[in-house]
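ingest -> fold -> write
write: protein_1
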Amino acid sequence: MSALKIKKGSSSHSAYDLRSHFSDVIERHTLAVIVENEPGVLARVIGLFSGRGYNIESLTVAEIDHTGHRSRITVVTSGTPQVIVQIKAQLGRIIPVHEVHDLTVEGPSVERELALLKVRGKGDARVEALRLADIFRASVVDSTLQSFVFEITGTPEKIDAFAELMRPLGLQEVARTGVAALARGGDSIV
């Protein structure tokens, strides 16, 4: 007896056709990985992604506990639900990894990113760049007669939108920190 149930009256499904049980929708997930702060840990995590062909959209890492020697790696990745499950399971098997949390499914979270954008322009383009920066609450952190450097903090989507509006005004260069994320509410993962 097969453990796979087949819909009654559906002759197009066989016990070997598992497509209907798996989603091929690509999802974006933010993972918080608590690791031992020691040499080579980040290389192992990145190696897991590259070795299996998983995509990293954003990666940030910093020490969060000086006395306990722990760091937090925040990884934004995308894949089918099955791929996300595999990523989390494989991350959990890496020896210096203490915890793996999927902030996307564990509840509401807050994501922020910082970006610096250099915009070159003169005349009306400069005025428009300043006007848009004001709307997006971006700060001017450097100014010359030829360019501005704006600092903006927000969701990745907000930064993407600001960059797209700056492109026709003379966007020259962008530096982004990657996503930092925390679960909302009173619970904490560390």
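write: protein_2
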Amino acid sequence: MSELPHCPKCESHYTYQDGEMYVCPECGHEWSEADMAAAAEAVLIKDAHGNALQDGDTVTVIKDLKVKGSSLVVKVGTKVKNIRLVDGDGGHDIDCRIDGIGAMQLKSEFVKKA
């Protein structure tokens, strides 16, 4: 017996297959294999060199970045440890904490995987 995927919306494990669609009886969500593949592709976040990033990675800043609302600058070569990938505003898809500056969000196009 094959293992059916959990519901992507409510994480229920009571899903069933109806033709080519999967259905969740708890929340009523329906999805297909193509929907799951598209969602996995959309979540993939890459650095400036095309390397896939994951939560917990360490990255290096490749460009001087001005901190909005402050006179601080994140310098080239700054290492940022333990990043978290998020769906942020304006393309800011990395949530992190930088020593000496604090919590902030970065765009993945300005970092490279360390």
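write: annotation protein_2
The chain has one helix and 13 strands.
The helical segments are 33-43.
pipeline exit 0
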